[in-house]
Design brief:
mainly alpha; 5 helices; 61% helix; extended
């Protein structure tokens, strides 16, 4: 049985269809309220050097793949097993990034330190 996977709506990315924008705005509003209720405060300190290139790579990967990085997990859960190859690529990419950072870049990993 062949399943047809949903296609990305290109209008959602360019905000010609406001549903995606409203979903993001709603998520931000909810987390602001939760942080206020829990009295979460930002710790003082600088943004470490890996945040900016990491954000650029994350966004570029998301744009190139034309989809959310969580989609392969949903696909596997729904029975689409070829998505395991994508998940393996994600794991390999994370390990390669850690190796390259330890070997060449030595960027501060911030609060993600092991």
């Amino acid at each position: 049985m062949c399943r047809r996977l949903p296609q990305l709506n290109p209008y959602a990315i360019t905000f010609q269809d406001l549903r995606m924008f409203l979903a993001f705005a709603g998520a931000v509003a909810i987390i602001v309220v939760v942080f206020a209720v829990l009295r979460v405060r930002r710790t003082s300190g600088r943004i470490h050097a890996g945040v900016i290139p990491g954000a650029i790579l994350f966004g570029a990967g998301w744009a190139i793949s034309r989809g959310c990085p969580a989609i392969p997990i949903v696909q596997v859960a729904s029975g689409y097993l070829p998505a395991l190859v994508t998940i393996a690529g994600i794991v390999a990419g994370v390990r390669l990034c850690r190796w390259a950072n330890m070997r060449y870049f030595h960027l501060d990993s911030g609060s993600c330190e092991r």
